Amino acid sequence: MKRDTEQMYATMSPWRLFFIVALPGMISMFAMSIYSIVEGIFIGQKLGEGAFAAINIAMPLVMINFSLADLIGVGASVPISVALGKKEYKTANNVFSCSIVMIFITSVIMGSVMFFAAKPLCAMMGANDALLDTSVRYLRTVALCSPLSTIFFAMDNYLRISGYVKTSMAINVGSNFLTIGLLTLFLIVFEMDVVGSALATSISMCLCSFVALIPFIRKKTLLQFTKPSFNLGMFRQIAACGSPVFLNNVSGRITSILINISLMTLGVKAFGENGGTTAVAVYAVLMYSSDLCWPLLYGISDSLAPSIGYNWGAENYGRVKSIVKCAYIGTSVIGLVSTSILFFFPGTIAAMFAKAEDALLLAESTRAIRLFCFAYLFRWFGVTTQSFLSAIEKPALATLMSVGTAFVFPVILLGALWSFGLDGIWVNFVGVNILAAILGIFLLIKVGKEIGKKQSEATSKQKTRP
Prior knowledge:
The chain is mostly helical. The protein has one domain (about 1-465). Helices cover about 85% and strands about 0% of the residues. It has 19 helices and no strands. It has helices at about 1-10, 15-45, 50-85, 90-115, 120-125, 130-145, 145-150, 150-160, 165-190, 195-215, 230-270, 275-290, 295-315, 315-345, 345-355, 360-370, 375-390, 395-415, 420-465.
């Protein structure tokens, strides 16, 4: 397995590698999007507008918790891939083993904080008296399962690095169909409220985390568990390489909090006394609608990152550029198709999540989707660029990209577009991704010059060898 995986990364034609590695990644992420969409349908049609808004208020805290696991998982994946490219297997195995321990400890701490401080945290998120109790119960349910469920995110990266691409895909697909089954059981059969939704997701992730660990426990993978040896340099490397994704997620959650608070204010101005709940529910519909598209972008760029990191470590810079080119072409196609679907079928998509009797929610969601959809004409570029910069150990540039996209640009535009009311919120996403694409172009020009220089130096070394 070790030899096959390394040979695939080092010698397989870029487009064949794309379909073998990225296609399963897309399927995995699309399965996740199906689950998310089904969850949104269940909540919207079964529990209604209030539950939609309450979960959307608690969700930033849930995602920050998962982001810490992602920080360690993604942050460890980069030095692991680079170490494998350099044939430093002992280093790769140690980083892998240490990261699992770090994720577990971090999740225990975060789960405890979310459980015991759920009420003040949800109030800080903007939950009013009508939404607070529901948000708290959802958050506490997720927190109880945190120590086991969060490992799921990292295992996906480690399976792909070890060449278990199809296994990773199967576990992701299985996880999402299991979650859908549990959602049906808890919400339809047992008639539970938002706690049932939180339980369905958490139980599925816990079970699939255990299944994902089995190949490593059986020592059938390229990566092997070893006695963890922690050191400050490793912590710094993981933090540096994982910080772009982490800061992107955390900044995005902070932005979501600011948007939720803004929506509570703007919604009252637009729709009257209970308009804040409606406006937050529209935002939730937008996020679920986005789940039709963004997982495919992430599936391509994230799946190809280990092969990019491997070849970067092996100083095969020409191959790095070839693989990255495939990633950009693939994500650009997804971006164009996503924009088209959202633009031409906004009413159909909105009706999946909003009850027919919630006429105001349905109408405003349709309008919001049609404005929001143009973000995907540019979003593909930012997602791929950030993943590429992270994969080649450029954490500072990737962090600049992620923080700009997730926090700086949206906050600036939130103020600039405030006078446009709710339309300003929906258009905000488009402006953010345009600015992110412009920033990405400048960063790629900078990195391109460096890669060209490294490629020339590598060629010169080969010519001088006897």
